[in-house]
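Quick start: what a row looks like.
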Amino acid sequence: MPKDWVAMRWLQKLYWINFAQPVEDRELYRTLIQRPATSILELGVGDGSRLRRMSQVQRVFGTTDSVRYIGTDEFESATDGRRHLTLKQAHQMASQLGFKKASLIPGDIQSALPRVAHKFGASDLIIVGCGYQATTLADSFVGPWLNRIAHDRSIILACRNSGEKLELVRWDCSDAAARAA
């Protein structure tokens, strides 16, 4: 590897981890740099800005071609007052960004999550960007599905309320299996 390439990659890593905007997503960038994911589940696609930034990081530190991206959102039926892509726009964006294996599931989280769990199974990286508004993620609407959408090496990033800082969620799949039994 040429020295210039190594230096450029180091500078990009420095930028994404310490200076990239929005600050709320820096834990996501750090995670993608340290361990590029082969499957990503994003609960709450919104306006697609996080998807755009994820593709930038994945292209520099991994690849987007072989990544299985699954996104859920209410899309055009959203009533929260925020900007949301239409389902068609989201499909076009994912394709243009290089996510060849993109699946977008319309509907609110409570209806989309069971479909994701049954159809796609576990993902390497799970982003709960729509907020889970509970004491713990396990106590939220996502909790009963964690053992279906996550495996023992999955990384889960979540924010309590939509738009807040993404944080690493500690989760042990053996605890979930014991609770389910």
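That is the whole record. The helical segments are 3-18, 26-34, 49-61, 87-96, 109-120, 146-149, 173-180. The radius of gyration is 16 Å.
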